[in-house]
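Fold it.
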Amino acid sequence: MNIINKEEMKRIDIETQNKIPSIELMEDAGIKMAIKALKYYNPKNVLLVLGTGGNSGDALVLGRYFIENNINVDAYIIDEIKNEDSIINLSKFKGKIIDYINFANYDLLIDGIFGIGLSRRMNDKYIDIINKMNESNIDIISLDIPSGIDATTGISYGAFIKSKLCITVEYIKTGMCLDDGLDSYKKIEVIKVGMNKPTDIIHLLNKNDFKNIFPERLRNTNKGSYHKASIIAGSINYPGASKIAYESLLSFKMGVGFANLFVPESLYNLYVLANPEIITNKLKEKDGHIDFDKEKLDEIIKRSDSIAIGMGMQVSEELYKTIDYLLKNYNKNLLIDADGLNTLSKYGIDILKNKKCNVILTPHLKEFERLSGKSVDYIKENILTLPKIFAKENNITLVLKSSSTVITDGNNIAIQKEGTTALAKAGSGDGLSGILCGLLAYINENCYKIACLGSYILGTSAYFSSKNTPEEVLRITEIVKNVSKVVKEIKK
């Protein structure tokens, strides 16, 4: 599914007005919003809450349609309406204009406060009204986007409407799939009014994106036909990270023929027979973390169609030397996560520019802050541009993990919003690394496509897991057990 940011929506809106007058677009949108709303609700008394711009005009057209269908509609105008088309529709409105809200009088609220143009913190008057609307426990329908949410980034500006239904025009906006935007509605409906086609689009992942991505498995094959995936992980202080990553790889071992785990020698006995399907290997160590070992790395390179490195390894110069060696001498797929990323941040990311292999980086927001040198707030405000620039400059695929995941190779960009709060626990990233490690070895696709698939698999695994177990008590190792269920759904 293609979605767009507010800048692109504004652009196609202006272009469309060259062939369809804005007043006609507003009329069409408002009527279609009203029809869509009445599919879900049979209200008796409705309140329109209106701001100063075009969003109020959509709401007034909707209200007029409701009145024509024998529904009582009142309007509360927060500040004087300034949009010319909205002023025209206010003159046509036959309902009552009120100057004080008694929420007890209404069974449905229409949010016509702000459209997609909001780009700064609201003043206290608007924040107070939005909070009171949410606290009223009356169902709210938002028009185009829940008020208070940035239509591009999903950041909220002091408060935001929590609507049961959002009826959006032409395309879902990226801000509805990011940050606080994820919590601003329960359901989205899209209406079409004949706008021009966008050119700057973002892709929202769904299972149909991965049709036929899994290779056909022929009978006349053996384990060597399905490649080798290797995880380099763990330290004496963080042995659990490598455990989670290899459990995730194990859950996808239906794909790869060989699954290798390389850990510091002091951790070897923790893993060697825990899952006999994993081939466990010792690495030299120093102070509880791996020591640089050229001879061992050459062996790993020969034995691996994909390598994931960094989970629970501790930041060290030895890890930096190891990553640098892999970048310069390995020519397949390398995933760098967790302490691998923090090590790059400390000792320098310039080594990413001198590489033979395909590289995926999988930072969360704080790790990307360290990598990019930009604050978390700045990253959130530029969530669809900064990752793309970073990926292009370093010729890598970036998987930026947060409540939604942004995936980009510098040219393409996608959002993965499937998932639950069960993933808001330490270890989720390690689980993703294990899944991606298996996929990178098994499937003959580019890193961007694999990164999208792996992110979708983990998020949807969490969704399936949360159906039967409360999100608060779900463990990551339980979530990755549902990987097989998601793969089965995709292969249908």
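The first strand starts at residue 2 and ends at 3.
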